[in-house]
Amino acid sequence: MYQALTTLSQLITYSEARAESNVMVTENAVSALGQLCLKHPQGYDVGAAWQLWVLNLPVLKDEEEAPKVCSMLCSLVERYEK
Predict the structure, then answer these.
(1) 8-52 confidence digits (pLDDT tens)
(2) Could you give the CA distance from residue 59 to residue 41 in angstroms, rounded to a whole number?
């Protein structure tokens, strides 16, 4: 789990992550990070992972991942809205 989180974090925070040639990979990594946080929220600093995820929204270029990420955001809000 830690290795996956580290790899996703590196992809997302790469200085050229939003360059045209990298944006699809980055947005896939953002989506994967959200899925990891939702499905496996233990064993790492999930708060920091969610923060990284939120800071890298919105997903705009990847039309396949965008609705998934919107759904994850809704799930996050529902889970912690109290």
Answers:
(1) 999 999 999 999 999 999 999 999 999 999 899 888 899 999 999
(2) 22
Instruction: For residues 50 and 38, give the distance between their C-alpha atoms in angstroms, rounded to a whole number.
Output: 9
Q: Check residue 77 and give its pLDDT.
A: 86
Q: Residue 74 corresponds to which amino acid?
A: C
Give the domain range for residue 35: 2-80
Considering its fold, how many domains does the chain have in total? 1
How remote is the C-alpha of 12 from its chain's centroid?
8
Would you state the structure tokens that stand for residue 4, as one six-digit string?
A: 């996956």
The structure's pTM equals 0.91
Secondary structure letter of residue 24 according to DSSP: H
Angle at 79 between CA 17 and CA 34, to 5 degrees: 20
Place of tokens 């499905």: 39
